[in-house]
Specification:
single chain, Spo0b-associated Gtp-binding Protein, Chain: A, Rossmann fold, five-stranded mixed β-sheet, GTP1_OBG_dom, nucleotide-binding, 11733_t:CDS:1
């Protein structure tokens, strides 16, 4: 989904002077404006979808500065929980409606340079009452304006740098916070412009607009093992048999429209996450059907579990189709640790014959690729050989963990 995020507008600086008994002309005492609120994303393990994320997110406006050197409060930060595994990419803003060149020329003829300068000053400066026209004629104001323009130039350079280096985030650490849109800075109170020559500045600056970004949010499911199979291979039934997940199961050919994640609980309280990746079809790598929306979830699975319908006419061909689609979608994806789950092994008429052929194909594969391929025949419907499968999955995950630990040391 695409989201517009904008930091809150900074509060305006204050033009004020200290007024005390027996002091008719006190020093400047205007406070600075508060910064605008940030838009913050938090990686949450308790959220699994982006349904609660609004299309437009704006941080709170900063409070204006006050007299007696009281700075305004910062605007309220907008904190949005985002599911773990979400990839955030900054995209170009949506194209604006084109304006006819003749219309632009007419507008430019109507607005002269003086009017433009006046509008810019009105948007950038706060004046002491009745000094709206007097301040722009002052030398002190010109000096202050030059200083602010120099600061603005640095901000524009930073903005240009941000535009060139677009934001890219991968939310994989639980509870980690990311500021995706910074709130605008608050305006300066009039004490900021006090100099030896100008002891009573009668102007302050307005707050600055917050950072504005357009983001694309995409969830990529994180799991220890991903179940990959053609529609009606029995992935949902298998996930129900080995974990606490309860996806929809039907006796007719259909494919799950959303990935389900289940947790496999072991007797020693060890846990393992398994994802039911929606069914892959021929041409999924070309985005046929819901191809890419399915395949992107496989990228985060540490182990690939090919679920094959052993009762089909040619289950080894189904396995080839799955490998081919994965490899065409992402190079070397099939090189990850994997195993084959030969499901529906209880259908004795064809399953026994097909299993023998599958074991023969596995040996050929091992010789050609120098890669061990484990085939586990099961019946997900009746829960047969499930313990062997879950034990094997745990061994594979622990082996990967040990390898990753040794590489980091």
């Amino acid at each position: 989904m695409n989201v517009s995020v904008k930091g809150g507008h900074g509060g305006d600086g204050c033009v004020a002077f200290l007024r005390e008994k027996f002091k008719s002309r006190g020093p400047p005492s205007g406070g600075n404006g508060g910064r605008g609120g940030h838009v913050i994303f938090v990686a949450s393990a308790n959220h699994s979808s982006l349904h609660s994320v609004k299309r437009q997110l704006i941080g709170g406006r900063g409070e204006n500065g006050k007299g007696h050197m009281k700075n305004g409060s910062a605007g309220k930060d907008i904190i949005i929980p985002i599911p773990l595994g979400t990839v955030i990419k900054e995209i170009d803003p949506p194209s604006k409606t084109l304006i006819n060149k003749n219309d632009i020329n007419d507008i430019n003829d109507e607005i002269n340079e003086e009017t433009l300068i006046e509008k810019r000053r009105k948007a950038a400066w706060v004046h002491y009452p009745k000094y709206d026209e007097k301040n722009p004629q002052s030398t002190f104001f010109f000096e202050a304006e030059r200083m602010i323009k120099e600061e603005d130039r640095f901000r524009q350079l930073q903005k240009k740098k941000d535009a060139e280096n677009k934001l890219t985030l991968d939310l994989t650490v639980p509870n980690e916070q990311y500021i995706v849109a910074h709130g605008g800075l608050g305006g300066k109170g009039n004490p900021y412009f006090q100099t030896n020559a100008n002891r009573s500045p009668k102007f302050a600056t307005r707050g600055i607009e917050g950072q504005h970004r357009f983001l694309e949010l995409e969830i990529k499911t994180i799991a220890d093992a991903g179940l990959v199979g053609l529609p009606n291979a029995g992935k949902s039934t298998l996930l129900t048999a080995i974990s606490n997940a309860r996806p929809k199961i039907a006796p007719y050919p259909f494919t799950t429209l959303n990935p389900f994640i289940g947790t496999v609980d072991y007797a020693d309280r060890y846990q393992l996450k398994v994802a039911d990746i929606p069914g892959i079809i021929h041409g999924a790598h070309k985005n046929i059907g819901l191809g890419h929306s399915f395949l992107r979830h496989i990228e985060r699975s540490r182990i690939l579990v090919y679920v094959i319908d052993l009762s089909g006419t040619a289950p080894w061909e189904d396995w080839k189709v799955l490998r081919n689609e994965l490899e065409l979608y992402q190079k070397r994806l099939t090189k990850r640790p994997s195993l084959v789950v030969a499901n529906k092994a209880d259908i004795t008429e064809s399953a026994e014959r097909n299993l023998a052929i599958m074991l023969g194909k596995a040996k050929e594969f091992e010789i050609e690729n120098e890669q061990v391929l484990e085939i586990v025949p099961i019946s997900a419907k009746y829960g047969k050989n499930i313990v062997k499968l879950t034990s094997l999955l745990r061994q594979m995950v622990e082996k990967i963990n040990e390898k990753e630990t040794s590489n980091t040391e």
